[in-house]
Amino acid sequence: MEQLNTALLFQVQSTVIVIIMFVGLYWRRNRKKHVPAMLTVIIWDILLVLQIELNRGAVAKAVKVVSNRMILNIHVGLALSTVLIYFAMLYTGGKVLKNNLSYRKKHKWLGLLTVTLRLLTYMTSFFAA
Ligand code: HEM
User: Fold this and answer.
1) b/e string for 36-55 if b means 16 or more Cβ within 10 A?
2) Residues in the chain with pLDDT < 70?
3) Closest of 50, 28, 51 to residue 38, by C-alpha
4) Does 100 sit in the ligand 1 pocket, CB within 6 Å?
5) H-helix or E-strand containing 30?
6) How far is the centre of ligand 1, averaged over its atoms, from the C-alpha of 72 (Å)?
7) Separation CA 57–CA 55 (nearest Å)
8) Distance in Å, CA 79 to ligand 1 centroid
9) Rounded percentage of the chain residues whose pLDDT exceeds 70
10) Phi and psi of 28, rounded to 5°?
11) Residue ranges per structural domain of the chain
């Protein structure tokens, strides 16, 4: 029961993070709103990965048998790629913030890739738990 609650708590946080990410995307033309929203997403998401790592035993017990190891591997790969690309978003976002506009296009395409990766991470989490 407690393990199930922990797993639920992770899913709830993950859902809120994805929602904030879409709100931040909607605010992409408004620096004052976009930057704090995306910084919240990045920091909270990294903290979530750490929470899950530290509770791995708990989650494993909750699921008892991981039904699909391949999906789990894909999920972990996507989650790690998302965290890596966050650093590219911080870097390019910082450049755009300083009005270095040559980074704008990179930030835009990397941003779309980030959102795609995060959504795939979210979707696979339901199969890999
Ligand atoms: C998950 C993270 C992020 C995503 C998905 C994302 C996505 C985007 C997208 C799609 C745009 C519009 C680009 C265009 O149409 O030219 C944008 C603009 C921008 N982003 Fe981000 N971004 C993220 C994080 C950040 C961070 C961390 C910063 C700052 C450190 C930042 C700073 C900016 C700035 C300054 C703009 C231009 C806003 C304007 O029109 O003045 N972004 N972002």
Assistant:
1) ebbebbbeebeebbeebeeb
2) 1-2, 57-67, 129
3) 28
4) no
5) none
6) 30
7) 5
8) 20
9) 89
10) -60, -20
11) 2-128
